[in-house]
Amino acid sequence: MGQLMGGDPSLLRKINQAAVLRALRAAGRGCSLTDLARSTGLSRPTVEGVLDGLARADLVVETKAAETTAAGAAGVRRLGRPARRFRFRAEAGRLLGVEVGARRISAVLADLAGRRLGEASRGVPPDASAEERLERIEQAARALLGEGGQGAPAPRAVGVGTPGIVGQDGSVALCTALPGWTGLPLGERLRELFGAPVLVENDANAAVLGERWVGAAAGCDDVVMVLAGLSPGAGSLIGGRLHRGHGGAAGEIGALHLLGRQATPERLLATSGTPIDPLDERAVTRVLAAARAGDPRAEEAVARLVERLTHDVAALVLALDPELVVVGGWAAGLDQVVEPLHRELERYCLRAPRVVASALGGGAVATGAVRLALDHLEAELFTVAEVPD
Amino acid sequence: MGQLMGGDPSLLRKINQAAVLRALRAAGRGCSLTDLARSTGLSRPTVEGVLDGLARADLVVETKAAETTAAGAAGVRRLGRPARRFRFRAEAGRLLGVEVGARRISAVLADLAGRRLGEASRGVPPDASAEERLERIEQAARALLGEGGQGAPAPRAVGVGTPGIVGQDGSVALCTALPGWTGLPLGERLRELFGAPVLVENDANAAVLGERWVGAAAGCDDVVMVLAGLSPGAGSLIGGRLHRGHGGAAGEIGALHLLGRQATPERLLATSGTPIDPLDERAVTRVLAAARAGDPRAEEAVARLVERLTHDVAALVLALDPELVVVGGWAAGLDQVVEPLHRELERYCLRAPRVVASALGGGAVATGAVRLALDHLEAELFTVAEVPD
C-alpha cells in the first residue's frame, strides 16, 4: 500500500495536489491549465505536474476543446489554438460504503467523486454469527457491484462502519453488540473479499464524517454526533479531525447511564406497556407514533428516552465543548428531541452548543463509510512514493 | 506583540530553532557550533543563524573556551584555536506563574529555562471582591519580584491559572466560583500591572500542562487531569495539545453529578457529622484524616467522594479515551483514591486508562502557569517577524 513520504515538502505538495483536484472536480466539464493555475494560485508547472500524476493514474483525461467558453469569456487565448482542457474521470472507478448493523447491512456505491450511484441492503438476524454477517455484507455489495465476479472490476476502495472498538489494522478489538464480532479481522476479511483497500471505522465515527461531508454538520469542525440506540455511541470531530481516543474507544458511552440512574433503554421502552426490544426499529417507531398520537404511557416512555439522551449528550458536551451536537439513530426521528435537548443542555452546560437532528438519518453511517473510501482514494492520489508492504 | 508569520517554511524554521534551543539548554555549560550541529542534525549555517537571533535577544552568550572537553573527547579540533562555545542565558529574565484560587493566591518565579527560583502565596477570603483578589495577586508577585517597583525589571512573561471559562483575549468569560470574576479583563489588568505579556488559562488546563511538563503526565500526549474540588474541573491534552473546546468550556464538568444522582460535595461531606465547606481545605483534610483513623462516618464520606469522582472521571474517559488520568485537587491527597478509581473505571469503560495521583499536588496550577509563560517566551524567540498590534 502507498503511503505519504517525507516531511513538510511533501505536505506542501499534498496541499497543492488537493487544490488542483478540488478545482478539477468543481469545474466538472473541464478546465484549462490557465483556469486551474488561476483558481488554485499555483504555477503552471506545478499544475502540469499534478495533472501528469493524475493522468498516469487514469484519473484525468484531456477533453475535446469543442467549447472554450471560460477562456473566451475571460478574453484569454481568443486567437490561435484553443487551450488544452482537462477533466477528472469520476467514472474511472467505484467506491463502496458499508454499514454493519445489528439487523441490517447497508451498502452505498459511489463514483470517484463520491457521487451516489446506488444502494442496497440485506436483513440479518441480530444473533447471526460473524460468518453469516460477512455473507450478508458480500450479498449487499454484490447487488451493487454486479454479480459478474470475474467480469466486474473491484471497487477502488471500501469504507466500513461497524459497532465496537476498531483497531488500527481494521480488526474489531471489542464489540458487545454483535455475536462473534470481537477479535474479527474485519478489514483483512473484506480486503480478501473485495480485492481492494478496506477502511474500517467505528459506526458513530463514520456517521459524524458523513454528516460533516454532506449532512447536518457541513462546514463545522467541532462536532459531537450521538447515535442513539441500545448501546449509544458518539463520534467526535475536534478541529475537523476524528477524535478516536488513545485506544479507539472515545465516544463509547454505552455505560454512561449506569453511572447515574439505573435506567436502561429496555426498561424505558417497557414503560409504554409491553417490553420492547430497542434493537427492533419497528417497535421503537410504534412507541414514537403512539406518543405523537397522545398515548400518555408512550409519551412518558419518550420523555425518559430524551432524559437519558440528555444525560449522555450533556456528559459529552461538558467534556468536549463542541460547536454542534448532531442527534442520530432512532432519536433523529423524534420531532420532540432537538428542542428539549437544547433546553436541558442550557441548564447544565456553561456554554450550550447548537443541537440539530441528523440530516442523513439511517444513511449517515454508510455515507460516512463512502467518505472513508474517498479519503483513502485522495490520500492514494497524493502518494509521493509507493512503499511495498 | 509578535506572532508567527508565514506557512510551512516558517514552521520548519521554528522546528529548527526549537531544536537548537533545546540542545543549548540541555548542554547547560555551553556547546560549540559543531556540538549543536551534531546533536540537532542541522547545518552549521542554520545553527549559526539561530544563535545570531538568540544573541540579538540577549539570550545566548559566547562563553570562555576554558575547557573543550566535549570537542576534545570527540577528537575534533584538538589542534589550533579552541571552538567558540555558546550558552543559553537563563538568568537574562524571569517568568512568573500565578494560581488564582478561592482562598489562596500562589505564585512561582522561574528563570528563562523554567527553573524554579522561589514561591510565595497570600490568603484571600472566598468572598473577596475582584479588586481585593487582584491586590493579593500583586502582593504575592511583589514578594517574589522584589518591592523595588521602578528598580526591579518586569518578568518576561506571566502565566495565570484561574477557575472559569477563559476567553481568547485573557478575560474571564464565566466564573461561578469567584465573586465579580465573570467578565473581568484579567489578562489586560495583569498586563498593565506587570508590564509584560500575560497568558491566562483555565486552572485545570494549566494543571495538566504542569503535570505533563514536570509531573505525573511526563511524556504522555493523551491525558485527562481532574481537579477535584467544590466545582471540579478537568484539563485535557489530546495529541499533546490542550483541548479547550469550541468556546473554552471543555472539562467544565461541575454539573455532571446533577445529571445522575443528586449528591453535592457539601452533602457528601456533611455525612461525616457536621456540614463542611469543601472550599475549606483544612476541613476536608480533617475528614480524610478521620477516615484514615477509622471513623466510620468519615469513611462513608470519603467513599461517597470517591464515588462522585468516579462518576466525573468515567464520563470524561468514555468521551475522550485518554491514555492516562491524573487525579489532582484534594483527591490527590487520598491514598485510597487511585486504586478504587481504576477498578471502577475498568467496570464502566471498554478500555480503562492508567490512573495516577498528581505529582505536583497543590503546585500543579502554578507550575502549569510557569509553563504557559515559558511557552510564550519560546514562541517569541521563534518569532520570524514583529507585527505591531
From TrEMBL, chains A, B:
<protein>
    <submittedName>
        <fullName>ROK family protein</fullName>
    </submittedName>
</protein>
<dbReference type="Pfam" id="PF00480">
    <property type="entry name" value="ROK"/>
</dbReference>
<comment type="similarity">
    <text>Belongs to the ROK (NagC/XylR) family.</text>
</comment>
<dbReference type="InterPro" id="IPR036388">
    <property type="entry name" value="WH-like_DNA-bd_sf"/>
</dbReference>
<dbReference type="GO" id="GO:0006355">
    <property type="term" value="P:regulation of DNA-templated transcription"/>
</dbReference>
<dbReference type="InterPro" id="IPR043129">
    <property type="entry name" value="ATPase_NBD"/>
</dbReference>
<dbReference type="InterPro" id="IPR005471">
    <property type="entry name" value="Tscrpt_reg_IclR_N"/>
</dbReference>
<dbReference type="InterPro" id="IPR036390">
    <property type="entry name" value="WH_DNA-bd_sf"/>
</dbReference>
<dbReference type="GO" id="GO:0003677">
    <property type="term" value="F:DNA binding"/>
</dbReference>
<dbReference type="Pfam" id="PF09339">
    <property type="entry name" value="HTH_IclR"/>
</dbReference>
<dbReference type="InterPro" id="IPR000600">
    <property type="entry name" value="ROK"/>
</dbReference>
<feature type="domain" description="HTH iclR-type">
    <location>
        <begin position="19"/>
        <end position="61"/>
    </location>
</feature>
